[in-house]
Amino acid sequence: MNTRNAPAIVILGAGSLATAQRIQQRYPAATIHGLSGRVEGADSVYDSFGQTLRGLYQEDTPIIALCAAGIVIRSLASLLSDKDVEPPVLAVAEDGSAVVPLLGGLGGVNVMAREIAEALGVAAAITTSGELRFGTCLLNPPQGYALADLEQGKRFVSDLLAGQSVRIEGDAPWLAEAQLPADAGAQRTIHVGCELRPARHDELLIHARSVLVAVDASVPDLAQRVTAALAEANIAQASLACLLASEQQMAEPALHQAAAALGVALRFAPHADNLLGMAGQTLPQARLSEQSGLLIAVAEAPLDVAQVGRARGRLAVIGLGPGAAELMVPAVKAELARAEDVLGYETYVRMAGPFRDDQVLHNTDNREEMQRARHAFELAAQGRSVVVVSSGDPGVFAMAAAVLEALHESSDPAWHRVDLEILPGVSASLATAAQAGAPLGHDFCVMSLSDNLKPWSIIEQRLDLAAQADLVLAFYNPISKARPWQLGRALEIVRQHRDGHTPVVLGRDIGRPGQTLKVVTLAELLPDMVDMRTMVLVGSSTTCVFPRDSGGNWVYTPRWYPADR
Ligand code: SAH
């Protein structure tokens, strides 16, 4: 299956939001784009409908526009002669009563139209002749099959539409339901198989992805060797479903590069003495042959790759940003869409949603960080795709360090083979600073005021030195019910070095519903203005404040520093 960008659902007014959200339930990775000033609650806002649509189209993003088909057509008209990209484009009536596939026939637009129509409880307006006549798009075979030659396929379908009959060679179970003009004596054939040969002019050649190649990471130029071995064995490359390697080689970059270059999945089997044994155990029914140091296994039917051996497990430690979906980096959105298991403190897991029914959520108490980290590795070592969720950035007083500590402590090779990645997010100090202006524009110091994991004496010492060094101070975890007096003591220390007029920014629930931003002076600051959902930024001697036209103040710390201070 080709990996597509997640769809964009584009809406013009608040009236379409409910329909957009129903479509988003069907495609949880989809982003709702709302016209700025007209829609609240969209994942992202835009100013120009036409530009937004054209931008998405050129990025090959499937577009679901909740508006008149004509508006969509006019907006994209200038791009339609460019055949390089043609993502699915659909118009959906605002109230969800009609779903019209417009473009992207070969990108599966009709499939999407049916999926959306099903989610909305209506019928899709399919207009493709071949598909209407035969009940299936012959040029877009299902997963597990690949069309050999598109141009030739188009001619073939027009011949059938013009009245030619057809017979099927090979196994094409998805065509059993199709209304094809079948005739055992027909000249035209739909041929399903995996042999390497050009399509005949009267044939629709479809390759079944039924071939696996067992490989070893030590083979040089692996991707080329696989291609050559398939050609020697007279097998079409399009029939290659996956590569198989030993679990011991799970982390070998050469294997992952080869699979990526070939555009197929990489699966793993328990170590065996040789490739023959490994492939034989994994696919007992397949026809096996050695080909220049590789082992080719040809199965009877397309391989369900997810059932072949197992995948390399993945563990991504992600940062959601402060809360608003717009401030979540796209790599994190994509990771959430591919996750099978999601671990984290309940509030953050909820913030990361909505999730599909097949995604397993493991909510845990905020305090059990190491236990959660180990649980994540246990799941990932089984081959699952696991996400550990933090707010802000996962490396800032959050899960990334705990996950690495758990790995460092472990001697389990399966944990060390996991595909571990840390994906950054916008940390609360940066999100708060951006809203206030640029208080972190010069050197600054980031501290957690929590003495849960470190002695209070070290906090006092660092505060004293940082305040003395005239650094802007960013305080995470400034106060909590269990730590009521610490902030007051911290401010006493800071006040020993800093003027009472020093600006202080208090950002509470930044990027979340009900966010507040306050600017006070150090003299005015009282611990009860602050709670555990607040970010405290204490200015340095150069931090400035001036009023903004829209109300409130701008706060910034200039880039320069006076030579004589
Ligand atoms: N990894 C997070 C920080 C976790 S520590 C990050 O990078 O942002 C938790 C502390 O972060 C809270 O006590 C609070 O001080 C701050 N914080 C987290 N999210 C916040 C938000 N949306 N607004 C203000 N402060 C926030």
TrEMBL record:
Domain Cobalamin synthesis G N-terminal: 52-130
Pathway(s): Cofactor biosynthesis; adenosylcobalamin biosynthesis
Gene label: cobJ
Record bears the keyword Cell cycle: no
GO molecular function ontology, one term from the record: precorrin-3B C17-methyltransferase activity
Keywords on record: Cobalamin biosynthesis, Methyltransferase, S-adenosyl-L-methionine, Transferase
High-level lineage: Bacteria, Pseudomonadati, Pseudomonadota, Gammaproteobacteria, Pseudomonadales
InterPro entries recorded: 4pyrrol_Mease, 4pyrrol_Methylase_sf, 4pyrrole_Mease_sub1, 4pyrrole_Mease_sub2, CbiG_N, Cbl_synth_CobJ/CibH_dom, GbiG_N_sf, Precorrin_MeTrfase
GO biological process, one term: cobalamin biosynthetic process
Alphabetical list of SUPFAM superfamilies matching this protein: CbiG N-terminal domain-like, Tetrapyrrole methylase
Limits of the Tetrapyrrole methylase domain: 315-525
Annotated PANTHER family: COBALT-FACTOR III C(17)-METHYLTRANSFERASE-RELATED (PTHR47036)
First-level EC class: transferase
Pfam families from the UniProt entry: CbiG_N, TP_methylase
Isomerase recorded as keyword: no
EC identifiers of the protein: 2.1.1.131
Name of the protein described by the UniProt record: Precorrin-3B C(17)-methyltransferase
